[in-house]
Amino acid sequence: MDLHTLSVAALQKQLRSGSVSAVEALDALESRISIVDPKVGGYLSHSTHQARKEATAADLSKPLGGIPIAIKDVINVTGEGCSAASKILKGYTATYDATVIRKLREAGAIPFGRLNMDEFAMGSSTENSAYQLTRNPWDFSRIPGGSSGGSAAVVAADEAYASLGSDTGGSIRQPAALCGCVGLKPTYGRVSRFGLIAFASSLDQIGPFTKTVEDSALLLNALAGKDPMDSTSVDLPSDNYTRLLGQDLKGIRIGMPKEYFIEGIDPQVDKAVRDAIRHYEALGAEIVEVSLPHTEYAVAVYYIVATAEASANLARFDGVRYGHRADNVQNLLDHYTRTRSEGFGEEVKRRIILGTYVLSSGYYDAYYLRAQKVRTLIRQDFTRAFEKVDALICPTSPEVAFRIGDRSDDPLKMYLADIFTIAANLAGNCGISIPCGFANVESKRLPIGLQLLGKPFEEAKLLQIAHAYEQSTPWHRERPDLSSSGL
Ligand code: GLN
User: How, if at all, do strands 163-167 and 68-72 pair?
Assistant: First the structure.
């Protein structure tokens, strides 16, 4: 049996029945990584020593007992590097576990490996990593999406049973869509961000990449909950996110936001999503048209709010306490300037400059304050829509994976990749991307993602709706044929 192809739920069964040991589950990943990762480039590093110790001692009676979970390089794991794929944090070793890591360990899981990403999670293609390219397992000449491109690619290529990523404007959902796996962005406040290197604190959420919706629910069971170390995490009674899986969709109302079905969407994406909507009708859900009238401002608002917050969050990387430090500096100012010029990549510098500009006196009212007001209008759009429906349905990304290098010199075009995902971060609600078909492009099959957006803190229902589609369609069972991709 090809152990590495298993879902978390299937592996859990094998482990509990005793037919497989946690060390074997880890070994299966190791050998898969050694075969495919030289080409995929999803892992920045993966040290087996500690993971093996944990696998040997794994308590299989725990919910995720003995299951290795791969981690985006922006989440701190004690003793492991944590560079956010930036040169400025090269050589930095985490001194503590992020709360999500502590929680994974409490559930018996084994944090394993460091996954490539866009530097400081800024990007949509993982091309902004200071270290390496990650390739889309469905076509190695294409990007895996971003910023959590490594997290998506390793799950799609069966080099991880599941992984963690972060989503500030779509960085879980968009790469999941482009790589053909399941990516869940929980509601803002559902999962603690303590130990996540902050990008834009009013938008960042951590969530899982998995092969199935059920796995996504299993991981959220472990990750969710109030954390005194993150004051934005919300104190709600703990939910069981698998509780509604398998229930039918009678009485469920799903909204089709008319602003999300616009010109410019790849026709194959548009068709797959419309087919999915008809499929939902056949499953008994009622589809209604809704309007999110301020959608057209979402990209502009996001790139003001996110860059403003990033410019403040990234001020701490000054070469004094950790990471890169410039040599032979003349004085303190020279130290800061040279350290940051050398340490940050081009996109990160662009965002810091943009963010500093929109916060500066004279421009604050015109940009930042106005963006915050429009953000409120965007949030109200969602609140109104959710009075009528249980979930919203739309494409995750307007297009399938593009070629490496295609957008590198056109940041604006790259920013438009987020058009359908960022509003959920601005509003704070939960969202998921699930596979809904393939586009045929130049003799390759490229995955298409369906996005479902849920009401704040109603992940259980969102997962129910996603699961009903997944279980009655074949898409999630499809795997890239890596041998035909040049391996
Ligand atoms: N692609 C978006 C950006 O570049 C979103 C990134 C994210 O969600 N971390 O900012």
Answer: parallel
Is residue 438 within 8 A of residue 445, CB to CB? The reply is yes
Specify the pTM.
Answer: 0.97
The structure tokens listed for 38 are 């030289």
> Which pLDDT score, from 0 to 100, does residue 485 have?
57
Tokens found for residue 315 = 């001020």
Task: Confirm if 302 and 417 have CB atoms less than 8 A apart.
Answer: no
Q: Which residues pair with 206 in a beta bridge?
A: 166
Following DSSP, what letter does each residue of 57-79 receive, concatenated?
T--TTSTTTT-EEEEETTB--TT
Token pair listed for 285: 């859900």
171 a catalytic residue: yes
pLDDT band at 418 (very low <50, low <70, confident <90, very high): confident
Q: What is the pLDDT of residues 282-338, one digit of tens each?
A: 999 999 999 999 999 999 999 999 999 999 999 999 999 888 999 999 999 999 999
- pLDDT score of 486: 54
- Is the CB–ligand 1 distance for residue 199 below 6 Å? yes
Catalytic residue among 129, 147, 166, 233: 147
For 202, counting Cβ atoms within 10 Å of its Cβ (0-12 exposed, 13-18 middle, 19+ buried), the class is: middle
Q: Which of 74, 119, 127, 147 to mutate to test the pocket of ligand 1 (most atoms within 8 A of CB)?
A: 147
Average pLDDT over residues 148-157: 98
The answer on pLDDT for 373 being more than 60 is yes
For the chain, list the domains and their CATH numbers.
3-258+378-484 (3.90.1300.10), 299-376 (no CATH)
Residue 412's pLDDT is: 79
What burial class does residue 203 get, using C-beta atoms within 10 Å of its C-beta: 0-12 exposed, 13-18 middle, 19+ buried?
Answer: buried
How would you classify the pairing of strands 68-72 and 110-115?
Answer: parallel
Which pLDDT does position 16 carry in this prediction?
96
Which H or E run includes 445?
A: strand 444-454
